[in-house]
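Chain and conformation:
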Amino acid sequence: MQICLTISSFFGILQPYCRNFFSPNFSDELIVETNTAENKISHNKIEIRNDNPEVIRMIMLNVSQSVTLDYYSDQTEKLLEETNSYTQLLARRGRLIIGGRKLKKFIGKTLLLKNRIAENLYIFDSPPETWENEQLDKLHTELKKSFDLQDRFRDVSEGLQIVKDNLELFKDILQYRTSLLLEWIVIILIAVEVINFFVGKIFQVNEK
């Protein structure tokens, strides 16, 4: 209970300095034991030989990346579910039940999520402090494997690609529907002009 209160108060301190504070609470628990005989990483516990601030920071960075991936995975799953609902309607009814404005908002939401992932995740790039510190680099690599960051990131990327492919299809269908509507409007206008022409000719003949 005391730990939960401490975390909540810490969030309260951080919130005014956050640009995009997310209300959903995603968390991960990890026990860090210092001054051990050797460095060892297990499922929910890390043992390190010293409490070097850089080492602690590296652990915190990887934990934060893991929690961030949980959040983006959840957002991607929601986008996939929404996309799938439109795809099922398309399969059942043979037409797309979504307007152009809503589709644009959907596309914008997907692009925004992809941009945030690119800004906030560093799955394939090592932090600068690991470049000249072999031990930190080794720890960072082991932590990424322990949290399965690359595979989870790949799952999120593939999910967003599926959403993107579906949205491209939806956009093509809407464009086809719009162009077909314009073609019919042009045909109707031409037909009206032809009718007006023949009606005018008939009236001219009758007047003579």
In short: The chain has five helices and three strands.
